[in-house]
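Technical annex B. To support the medicinal chemistry partners, we prepared a structural model of the target in complex with pyridoxal-5'-phosphate, based solely on the information shown next.
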Amino acid sequence: MSVAEQLTQVRRDVEELSNRTGQDVVLVAVSKTKPDEDVMAAYEAGQRDFGENRVQELVGKAQRLPKDIRWHMIGHVQTNKIKDFLPWVHLVHGVDRMKVLEVLERECAKLSRNVDILLQVHIAEESTKFGWDASEIADLARPEVWEEFPHVRPVGMMGMATFTDDEQQVRREFALLAALFKTHGKAFDQLARSRGASWEALSMGMSGDWAWALEEGSSMVRIGSAIFGDRNLPL
Ligand SMILES: *Cc1c(COP(=O)(O)O)cnc(C)c1O
């Protein structure tokens, strides 16, 4: 199947399930390692949200491709690269430590712009996955914290489940994230609204587990291989 056909299929499946759960869902097409032609095929089929995990690749595509594409930085954030992607990014998914907030703030101030971010939460069993834990999120829900970062707007959370086919485990991890998202939703929403945004994005679910994620409350799925096929070697 072509990229356009696979995208259409995925979009239909996501819509069908999100209608059932009653949750509006944003589909982020993860185009990492894929050539411009594949992005354009999805674009022509109506897709506007794309996810990349490497800064150079995101910036290159953003410079070459249509300006109404919303680029999502979904990879681990290296603070020395923030100034490079900031001018091009719509949403930064992987904000997982204070240093990232500090550098985002500094670079946003230089550009006189705000940036929307997701707090990455560590939900997986593997110790290799990045993110805050539940008690750190509770700390971050205090509005005082954000006085230091006036240009940064927390609009939601992001998480990755353990890479396993154990459905119960994956669901449990997603449910944990959804509960955290809700528990602190009021505090974060107040903060986001004071900055002209809202607390609305729960980014969880990839090609292999998006349906479980949606059923556990996701409002944003990041889908790559189910749309674009197996990944090429990194560019
Ligand atoms: C690559 C990637 C995805 C997409 O993965 P697929 O399994 O191809 O859908 C989603 N989220 C993150 C953070 C990724 O790095």
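Notes passed to the chemistry partners:
The beta strands are 26-30, 49-52, 70-73, 89-95, 115-121, 152-159, 201-203, 220-223.
Residues 30, 32, 53, 74, 160, 206-208, 222-226 surround pyridoxal-5'-phosphate (CB under 6 Å).
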